[in-house]
Amino acid sequence: MPENLAIQSLIKATRILFTVAGSEHGKTVHQIAASLGLKHKTAYRLVRTLEQENFLQRKTNPVRFLLGSTIGELERLNGERHLLTIAGDMLVRTQAKLLCANFLLLELNGTETYHRLCVMSERPGVLIKQRSHTIHFYHHISSMLLLAYAPPETQAMLYKAHPFEVEGKPIWKTQTKLNEFLSEIRRTGLCASVDPDNRHYRVATPIFSKGGEVIAAMGGYMPVGESARSRKILAYLCKTTAAEISEKISKSDCE
């Protein structure tokens, strides 16, 4: 097979995305197949593959497909490549200073908190890039940190998507208790807590843009049985690394 021969399935998948993108209300598989001259079975397989990777999103009544979250995610990741590049290097270097710990970069996208990067104690020196790994909104302190620093309109959107009475009450018991925790985060610039399941001790600190907005969270965690000294080191490393990432981001924005 010639090295420069195009892969036809990729060409067809790309054309499906363009076809769907041009439709305000989405397209059915039959419409996609007809517009591109594909067999229905071929179109269905390609659509299902694109749906599994969130390039397409299914709507019902009737069943039709629109562009999925991955399209926006690619644009977002491309726009944040400086942050990911800078943070990735810093996470690897930081984890080498405390090998029993794991370090993460987390971001808020819409109403969900995503792991973007991580370096794990089981694989020191290996930067793991994640695309669509979300975490429980009320369960993890990184989400709480991003909530604490979010502007009022974003907070309202988050609470609407994650109702406290349904998702938060089993963990935080009362809204007052949660609000006190959020206030403490803003006061200290750091949050630290043992997981509700008592497995890990976690720390999260904010990463700021040049304009002073929180654009990500630097997270770290270790087994709950690690020493008090290791916990202090974890908090120090998270806070200083987040500050260094923030500084580098500000400098890169000026270049």
Task: Summarize the SSE layout with pairings.
Layout: H1 8-21, H2 29-36, H3 40-52, E1 56-59, E2 64-67, H4 69-79, H5 81-95, E3 102-109, E4 112-119, E5 128-135, H6 141-149, H7 152-161, H8 164-172, H9 175-188, E6 191-194, E7 200-208, E8 214-223, H10 228-254
Antiparallel strand pairs: 1-2, 3-4, 3-8, 4-5, 6-7, 7-8
Helix pairs in contact: 1-3, 2-3, 5-10, 6-9
Please describe the structure with a list of short key phrases separated by commas or semicolons:
255 residues, alpha+beta, six-stranded antiparallel β-sheet, two-stranded antiparallel sheet, 10 helices, 51% helix
Briefly summarize what is shown.
The protein is α+β, with helices and mostly antiparallel strands. The protein has 10 helices and 8 strands.
Strand content: 15-25%
| Residues in helices, as a percent range | 40-55%
Oligomer: single chain
Distance between the termini: 45 Å
- Main structural class: alpha+beta
